[in-house]
Amino acid sequence: MDQDVSNRWPLINHDEVVDMRGTSPPFKSFKKSSIYFNWCTSIFDCCLCRWIIGFVLWSKGILMKIPCCRVLFRWCRGLFRGAKRWVWKLFGNEECKRDAQIIQTLHEDKENVLKREQNFYRAYNEEKQEKENALAREAKLLQAYNQEKQEKENALTRLSALAGDRLRLNNPGIADLSDEYRPNKLAEKFSELYDNEWTEFYEDLEKPGSTEKQTIGQLLNLIQEIYTVCQQQAENQRRALINVIADPSNGKSENGSPPDGILIKIIDFQKKTVPWAIEAMKKNIMKKYEDLSDNKSESKRKYIERCVQLCWMMSIQDPPMHLDFGPEKDSVIDKNVYKLFTKTGDALDFMVWPAVFLHHNGPLVQKGVLQPK
Questions:
Q1: What was the pLDDT predicted at 2?
Q2: Where do the Mitochondria-eating protein C-terminal domain residues begin and end (predicted)?
Q3: Domain extents for the chain?
């Protein structure tokens, strides 16, 4: 027992042994055989046993040379092999059947588990696809609803705008509060023109030897001329647009007034083309009155430009706003319409600044200024 342990037979652990089919053999039978094998290897480790085995093997080599012993050995070997086959046939087939049944059961269980998993994933994917389809349908319905809602809102907006335009058409008492150049705002700007640009140009226009009445008369005549030109040009432009729309082939209209919707669009077009119209009329006015003051006078340019802008915006209103340049000389002053300039009195001497009315024979929007005697 004191020999090198590296020559000992290895012990068999039945928990680590796996057969050729990849499955463990039956627990009890394998455990029993492994115990027998380990017991036998322990016996073979004994020196006496090794000597006996060596003697038997030496004797076998001598006895195998004797014919009768050789026949007896072969007969015993055949008998042993037959007994081994009989024992294996008697007990081994049952163990193999049990192993096969266990393996088959395991395979069936595995297939059943796989089928259940496949069915579960299939049902999960179907439910997921149904939810995605439902969400897609809801998104389409929501998009269609929002589109229809937006179309209705746009239609209501257009209808409201059209109703408002028709209500304001030929009704200056109703103003569009979003319009920067509505009548009330224009009257305020016209009053600012008198306070600022008129005063500056008046100071530049004064010359030694000229009277106050002459200087103010020149300024009044200038704005009266601008107002008259703007009234005529605005009316001509509106009539030309109406004629072109009514009969594009020859630009002439045989009918009366156009429909309200067309007239509203024409008025809007005139308001949007204000910069071009003002620039053209400003050049004509500056050329006509170039004898007033210096041609390079900044106050003259500002005054004429502002007069043209406000008079044009007043002229394209519907109906056009009206500037009243006062009664005849020596007439009784209506102090509800005009303010006094530098003197007090009841009879008119000369006009200084026109009064603004919402339209001809309409309500007063801004008082004028005059000088009494």
A1: 43
A2: 182-370
A3: 5-135, 183-372
